């Protein structure tokens, strides 16, 4: 147990919570018993529960209260069953229960929180201390769902004591003996809030039950009278304990928050009724009123309360025990430090030193064994060193205008900590944190620096990073934290460092860069963590990726993104889209970017990753896949096997797009289908050398083109008209070439005539020349076999096409004779 927990133990000897979880070896860090009883009450035993499945651990019953609905399983309340499943860790059945019954997320958390509480108070479960702390924090987070499930005020007080033991005591120790710390206070606040809610709820519940029972009592001999008395006592006990526990909540509240003073003063008012000889707890009350005045900033009143205990006069009943006297003396000096009264703090610290080396051990001889006294004094010595350190820190703070005096005080403070570090190696981490707080900004970080100091430097940087307006973080401290984190990561000798230290340092770098405003560097560091540690900690890796994504898109909004942004953006996208993160919703944007950059192979990969959850999404993805495959064919030098594979893939995709668009009702799908048809036709002609397939693919193409609307605006009408004309012209050319290839010259002439009628200038003249050559060949063949009918038809076709050739060659259309 640490020095600051063993330094003052008067609660261990005399006090116990009414719900009896056990006293905590910390001044003020337990719930004292209710006055006026001078001895702790026994552990209570709850009445038997009417609910056959309500878990009972040490008399604690949760979930009971619903009226039985029948015999056997039918009598079980659903939430009771669910809570039981949660407490037993039967998650598969619990999840099924949630799903079948449509349980909201809030109710799910409520049930799981009750389950966590049941496990925590089950004496048969050997839960490690750290896990108990984690579960207590979960309970505090869900306290508003816990309280309605508890029907017994004593049970509610038991839960409060559990939260204090595993969620409050350690942080209260830290704040009492080392001073204010925003991070510790932020961690403590939810715990103290939960304690106050539990005790307030216990008081009100006990009072309500007592009030309900009172009219039903029949005289002094009524057997229910003892139960009524017990409820009435509980109501007062819980209210008293709540006022005592306000001190914890005040410690967890920033001194700048006016609520701290308000809550402390209200608690003092409530406790004053016990500041008398009849209460049986007057010394305890005097000390607590002193502490409450101390945290409220009323230092004169605090010293007055502590002074009454120090004087050990007959007005205080019972007489203060040695631990109560030590507490009063110790926190007198703390009050003076907080009031920045250096002279008084130095004088009273010297007086405390004399008392604790002379009077205090003598007082302990009457109540403790020698071995216990020796252990106690070891803790007292450590607590005294902490207090001396705080006096020197105050001296240095007040000597800012005198550099020599300040250095002397700072050196003295450091010397105290270095000695304490040797005496109490178990306090090294906390001591290192204090050493770091006073370390010069230009202190060199190298392999010679102890790992504990590196960790403390990093923690200091992280603590600084949590400051927000109006208190902005100091960039010097943040940069020193980054320097320490890098030293931890790259340290060759990791004897005193864990793998978790290294992991935390990696994430801390990203966070500190983020707070420094170095957003591009932060993006890359978050991505480093996400990609390196996903298997180690998937949740933190995912959170890191999400933060990187936020920064990426936030910077994208700027008119001129910072240097390195483009590279960071391009790095982020594939990491986010690919496994294990699988943000495939981003695949389309990234694929479009790659297509613009002519990275066709990569673009194809990401277009194929687009989720095809709707027909429109599927059509878009297939169309884009087709476009990219076409670009690959045009712009890459593939070997014959790879090219053939590309043609096969493109044909399949184009065919799918063509068929989807043929039945579509929107113009975009029809336009895509037209382009797919022409691409498939072109592949059949140039790559597959299959003119018959060309003709098959182009069947019905004109109708598909004509189904595209003409648009509404003048510009849209012109654009649509040009596009449709180009579609039809390309299809006519493909048909003409295919008819020629299969020897259907008559059909080719008909299609060419359509093309020439719609064209101008030399458009189609090349095809005219090619087709005239074919007709000449056919005419010669017909003449040889004396097929006069075919000869006449061929001659007519030649005359028709020659007319176009003659027209094209007229002087007005040809400037070169």
Short structural summary:
The chain is mainly α and 817 residues long. The protein has helices at 3-6, 10-14, 78-87, 91-101, 105-120, 129-141, 143-146, 153-178, 182-213, 225-251, 258-271, 282-296, 299-311, 322-338, 342-357, 359-365, 370-398, 403-423, 428-437, 451-465, 475-490, 499-516, 519-533, 538-556, 565-577, 587-596, 600-607, 615-635, 640-662, 667-687, 691-697, 701-706, 714-741, 745-758, 765-784, 788-808, and strands at residues 56-57, 60-61.
Give a structural overview.
The protein is an all-alpha fold and 817 residues long. The chain is built from 36 helices and two strands. The chain has helices at 3-6, 10-14, 78-87, 91-101, 105-120, 129-141, 143-146, 153-178, 182-213, 225-251, 258-271, 282-296, 299-311, 322-338, 342-357, 359-365, 370-398, 403-423, 428-437, 451-465, 475-490, 499-516, 519-533, 538-556, 565-577, 587-596, 600-607, 615-635, 640-662, 667-687, 691-697, 701-706, 714-741, 745-758, 765-784, 788-808, and strands at residues 56-57, 60-61. A two-stranded antiparallel ribbon has the order 1-2. A hairpin with a 2-residue loop joins strand 1 (56-57) and strand 2 (60-61). Helix 8 packs antiparallel against helix 9 (182-213). The radius of gyration is 43 Å and the shape is elongated.
Pick out its properties.
817 residues; mainly alpha; two-stranded antiparallel ribbon; 36 helices; 2 strands; 69% helix; elongated; disordered N terminus
Strand order of the largest sheet: 1-2
**Terminus-to-terminus distance:** 111 Å
Mean pLDDT rating: 80
Radius of gyration: 43 Å
What amount of the residues lies in strands?
under 5%
């Amino acid at each position: 147990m640490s020095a600051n927990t063993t330094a003052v133990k008067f609660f261990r000897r005399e006090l116990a919570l009414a719900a009896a979880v056990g006293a905590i070896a910390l001044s003020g860090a337990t719930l004292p018993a209710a006055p006026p009883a001078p001895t702790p009450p026994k552990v209570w035993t709850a009445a038997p529960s009417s609910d056959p499945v309500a878990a009972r651990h040490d008399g604690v019953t949760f979930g009971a209260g619903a009226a039985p609905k029948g015999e056997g399983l039918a009598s079980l309340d659903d939430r009771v069953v669910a809570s039981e499943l949660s407490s037993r860790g039967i998650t598969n059945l619990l999840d099924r229960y949630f799903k079948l019954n449509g349980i909201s997320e809030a109710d799910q958390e409520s049930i799981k929180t009750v389950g966590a509480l049941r496990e925590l108070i089950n004496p048969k479960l050997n839960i490690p201390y750290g896990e108990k702390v984690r579960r207590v924090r979960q309970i505090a987070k869900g306290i508003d769902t816990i309280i309605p499930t508890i029907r017994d005020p004593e049970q509610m007080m038991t839960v409060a004591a559990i939260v204090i033991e595993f969620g409050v005591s350690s942080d209260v120790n830290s704040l009492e003996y080392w001073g204010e710390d925003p991070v510790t206070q932020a961690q403590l606040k939810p715990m103290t809030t939960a304690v106050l809610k539990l005790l307030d709820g216990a008081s009100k519940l006990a009072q309500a039950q007592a009030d309900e029972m009172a009219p039903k009592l029949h005289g002094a001999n009524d057997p229910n009278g003892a139960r009524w008395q017990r409820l009435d006592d509980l109501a007062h006990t819980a209210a008293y304990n709540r006022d005592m526990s306000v001190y914890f909540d005040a410690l967890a509240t920033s001194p700048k928050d006016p609520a701290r003073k308000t809550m402390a003063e209200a608690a003092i008012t409530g406790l004053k009724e016990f500041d008398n000889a009849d209460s049986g707890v007057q010394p305890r009350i005097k000390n607590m009123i002193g502490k409450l005045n101390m945290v409220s900033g009323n230092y004169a009143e605090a010293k007055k309360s502590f002074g009454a205990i120090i004087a050990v006069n007959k007005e205080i009943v019972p007489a203060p025990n040695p631990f109560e006297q030590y507490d009063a003396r110790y926190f007198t000096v703390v009050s003076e430090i907080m009031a920045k009264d250096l002279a008084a703090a130095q004088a009273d610290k010297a007086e405390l030193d004399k008392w604790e080396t002379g009077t205090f051990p003598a007082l302990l001889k009457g109540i403790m064994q020698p071995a216990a006294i020796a252990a106690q004094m070891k803790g007292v010595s450590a607590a005294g060193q902490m207090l001396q350190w705080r006096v020197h820190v105050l001296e240095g703070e007040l000597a800012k205008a005198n550099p020599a005096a300040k250095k002397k005080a700072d050196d003295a403070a450091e010397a105290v900590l270095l000695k304490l570090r040797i005496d109490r190696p178990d306090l090294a981490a906390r001591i290192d944190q204090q050493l770091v707080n006073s370390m010069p900004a230009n202190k060199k970080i190298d392999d010679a620096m102890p790992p504990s100091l590196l960790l403390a430097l990093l923690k200091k940087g992280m603590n600084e990073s949590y400051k927000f307006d109006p208190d902005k973080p100091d960039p010097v401290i943040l940069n020193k934290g980054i320097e320490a984190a890098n030293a931890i990561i790259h340290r060759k000798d990791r004897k005193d460092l864990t793998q978790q230290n290294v992991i935390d340092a990696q994430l801390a770098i990203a966070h500190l860069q983020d707070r420094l405003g170095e957003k591009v560097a932060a993006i890359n560091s978050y991505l480093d963590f996400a990609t390196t540690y996903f298997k180690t900690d998937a949740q933190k890796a995912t959170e890191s990726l999400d933060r990187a994504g936020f920064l990426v898109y936030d910077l994208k909004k700027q008119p001129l993104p910072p240097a390195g942004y483009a590279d960071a953006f391009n790095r982020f996208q594939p990491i986010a889209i690919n496994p294990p993160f699988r943000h495939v919703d981003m695949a389309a944007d990234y694929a479009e970017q790659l297509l613009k950059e002519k990275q066709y192979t990569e673009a194809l990969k990401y277009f194929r990753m687009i989720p095809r959850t709707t027909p429109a999404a599927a059509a878009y993805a297939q169309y884009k896949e087709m476009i990219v495959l076409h670009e690959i064919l045009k712009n890459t030098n593939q070997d014959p096997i790879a090219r053939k594979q590309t043609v096969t893939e493109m044909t399949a995709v184009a065919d799918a797009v063509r068929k989807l668009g043929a039945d579509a009702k929107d113009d975009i799908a029809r336009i895509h289908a037209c382009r797919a048809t022409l691409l498939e036709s072109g592949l059949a002609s140039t790559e597959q050398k299959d003119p018959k397939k060309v003709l098959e693919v182009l069947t019905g193409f004109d109708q598909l083109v004509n189904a595209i609307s003409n648009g509404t605006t003048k510009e849209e009408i012109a654009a649509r008209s040009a596009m449709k004309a180009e579609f039809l012209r390309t299809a006519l050319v493909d048909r003409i070439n295919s008819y020629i290839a299969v020897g259907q010259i008559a059909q080719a002439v008909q299609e060419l005539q359509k093309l020439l009628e719609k064209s101008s200038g030399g458009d189609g003249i090349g095809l005219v020349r090619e087709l005239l050559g074919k007709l000449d060949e056919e005419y010669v063949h017909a003449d040889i076999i004396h097929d006069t009918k075919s000869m006449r038809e061929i001659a007519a076709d030649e005359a028709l096409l020659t007319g176009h050739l003659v027209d094209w060659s007229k002087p007005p259309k040809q400037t070169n004779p």
